[in-house]
Structure prediction request, 662 residues.
Amino acid sequence: MPEILKAPLVVEFPFTRSLGPVQSAFLTGLRERVVLGVTTTDGRTLVPPVEYDPVTADDLRDLVEVAPTGTVTTWAWNHAPRRGQPLTTPFAWVLVRLDGADTALLHALDAPGPDAVHTGLRVRIRWAEERTGAITDIACFEPYDGGPARLTGSTDEFADPVGGIVATARLDYTYSPGRAQTAYINSLADRRTVGERCPSCRKVYVPPRGACPTCGVPTAEQVEVGPRGTVTTFCIVNIKARNLDIEVPYVYAHIALDGADLALHARIGGIPYDQVRMGLRVEPVWTDGARYPDHYRPTGEPDADYDAYKELL
Amino acid sequence: MTRDIAVVAFAQTDVLRTTDELSEVEMLMPVLHSVLDRTGLKTADIGFTCSGSSDYLAGRAFSFTLALDGVGAWPPIAESHVEMDGAWALYEAWTKLLTGDADTALVYSYGKSSGGSLRDVLTRQLDPYYVAPLWPDSVALAALQAQALIDAGDTDESALAAIGARSRRVATLNSHAQLRGSVPQGDYVVRPLRTGDCPPVGDGAAAVILAAGERARELCSRPAWIRGIDHRIEAHTLGVRDLTDSPSTRLAAERAGAFERPVDTAELHAPFSAQEVVLRKALRLDDSVRVNLSGGALAANPMMAAGLVRVGEAAARIHRGESDRALAHATSGPCLQQNLVAVLEGEPR
Ligand SMILES: [Zn+2]
Prediction:
């Protein structure tokens, strides 16, 4: 069996999230070096604050300032920091109950080693130099030998409150398409289109995915199809995609290759977009060095009969 | 309308560190065929199909739709999906059978963790405002829970090591498990958790078939009747919770009827050694109960399937006559955030 294909796949997303009144006040407060909690109907103070009571589901809106100092309630020593974490040197993950709060906040603690950390350790916030209204405005915690720090007296009366955050994320994968699609992609490199036939219903699937969706059984028998085919349906694309060097409007179509029982999709070229039609006979156009057809163009044959492809719509 | 519903068949893949040569559907299909073969059912005979998986493991949107090729989804079938462990898909299928809309259900779930970095991937399920921007990974959060238990005097590092060692020792009898036999306790991953306290990262899939009433008796000589099933959730803010306890597990167990009579067997989904301590306490399991004879999640933890495997392992013991009343538990999220409990029974022999 030929080697299975693999390629890096990076998924990055900058989610823009809006904040409710409590989250907005809390994150704006961090920007101003003020820590706010929210008081519940039974008199507890939650930090970080939430908009609904986790026990009673009551609406929570009463903000109250707590100190930037507190006590570690549990911890874990992280000797190998990972990408995106608050510190690049070994640190402790900590849950900290700030003075004045009844619940704990998760963050990082900068300490020389695990022997310097214990539950009950007194700590204080180390503020980030540049603050934008995000949880990372707290750079980390640091050991602190003392009682509760004085409050600033600020509440939720901040100018220019933060209305949202951008939650950026990046995840790195190694994508492998599996056996069937590896075989398909490898044959495309030889300018051949190879599908797989279902052993039960005898249909030929292109591209093959290793299973017949009708019968739910594995497919393995390879069948070369095309190169010519028939347009079964199409759409006209009027909006240019980013990084795509194709003039709009252009046509994207479903194409039933000769011998295939499933239509694949590809761009149609070599014909004005408003002359593409169902039944149009097309063939692939390869460019030098490409691993797949650049587009399909008319063959000049007469159009296929509707009956010849109606099952593939 | 009340109907008795049972797990009548269970199948699972071997759990492997990597399965590059297989797409999701290629990995899943042998399990689907295996579970159907056990009952003699064809895909066309199944009344309802429900699956569990996660796009974040695959790194692609709507990744479950391709796996549907493996169940014969054309012509259209009655089908649903949860972006969760398959134990929750089983819960949905159970409610569907309760309504009387179907008599049989196929439940499957799968996960290929090998495509990405699981510790990073799982951070994306955390609170996006206050927690996810700090990228605390799954081991770090479990380590905070373990330290809380140690501080509370509920366990210590050597007791935790013993849990891992026992899990891998009994897993020598489970040919599907990823880690079997003696495994070094290893270095700290995030202190106080060592390699041996953490689950192996692996790819795998599982499937069960549910059937109602007489249909279950036709399909299985000793059905595993679901006497109760319930799932509950903790507050999402970690600092609000008492990490040494799992009130949601206890409540789910109570609603599932777990405390009405003792169970003889329990399959607990405890990916980290310290979580077994929490679950035993929440479920009031004493030494008379055989816990995780399969090896549990410390021997094999295929994401999105490990919870369904717990239900399947418990049911399979009843099918084989090795248990009369078994508890199955599944979890999802950091530090046992969400918990499902099912109570299964075989008829008297
Ligand atoms: Zn077929």
